[in-house]
Amino acid sequence: MIRLRVKAIRRLHEHRPPRTRMICFDEWGSLELKPHGGTAWAAQRRPRRMRATYRGLHGARHFLGFYDVHGHVLGGVFRPRKRISDLLAAFGRLRRCYPTRRLVVVLDKLHDIHDHPRFLRGLRRRRITPVFTATNASWMNLIEAQYGALKRFAGMSRSLLN
């Protein structure tokens, strides 16, 4: 079963059916803005001190990201929560980006959300076909590599700003 699913996803990555868009979806979060210490060339007498505590008043955000495999386009939305209604709103935005195309979305089998009957009903209503990765095959979701690059860039830019 797992081997069959991996082969089907790999075949979709390599050969796109006509008038079809292959989209990879994943959540990234919770993200919060807070200062991080870093290394810098500074005078040793009085280095700039970072406070020991951080008081975040605006909460965290979740990034719901989409990656068009054959178009090489990364997009998504930030939401304060990751509820079924937030996911369906993000998928509605995705459908508006590709109104006439058949959409095949690769996503992980996140229990209680991605396999919820209300979520699956919402995908059918938006004419989106979900393809779930196997439990041990999250590497088949190509957006994971995009998130790795984003995390490295965010870490690099954070140290440059300090």
Helical residues, percent:
25-40%
Query: Helix/strand/pairing class, anyone?
Result: alpha/beta
Strand content: 15-25%
Strand order of the largest sheet: 3-2-1-4-5
**Rounded average pLDDT:** 79
Low-confidence stretches: 156-162
- What are the secondary-structure elements, in order, as H or E? HEEEHEHEH
Overall 3D form: elongated
Instruction: Report how far apart the termini are.
Output: 49 Å
The profile of the biggest β sheet is: 5 strands, mixed
How large is the radius of gyration? 19 Å
Give structural notes.
The chain is of the alpha/beta class. It has a domain at 2-26 and 65-76 and 96-156. The chain has helices at 2-14, 84-97, 117-125, 143-161; strands at 20-31, 61-68, 73-79, 102-107, 128-132. A five-stranded mixed β-sheet has the order 3-2-1-4-5, sandwiched between helices. A hairpin with a 4-residue loop joins β2 (61-68) and β3. α2 packs parallel to α3 (117-125). The model is unreliable at 156-162 (pLDDT under 50).
Report a brief summary of the structure:
By secondary structure, the chain is α/β, with parallel strands linked by helices.
Topology:
Elements: H1 2-14, E1 20-31, E2 61-68, E3 73-79, H2 84-97, E4 102-107, H3 117-125, E5 128-132, H4 143-161
Parallel strand pairs: 1-4, 4-5
Antiparallel strand pairs: 1-2, 2-3
Describe this protein with a few key phrases.
23% strand; alpha/beta; 5-stranded mixed sheet; 162 residues
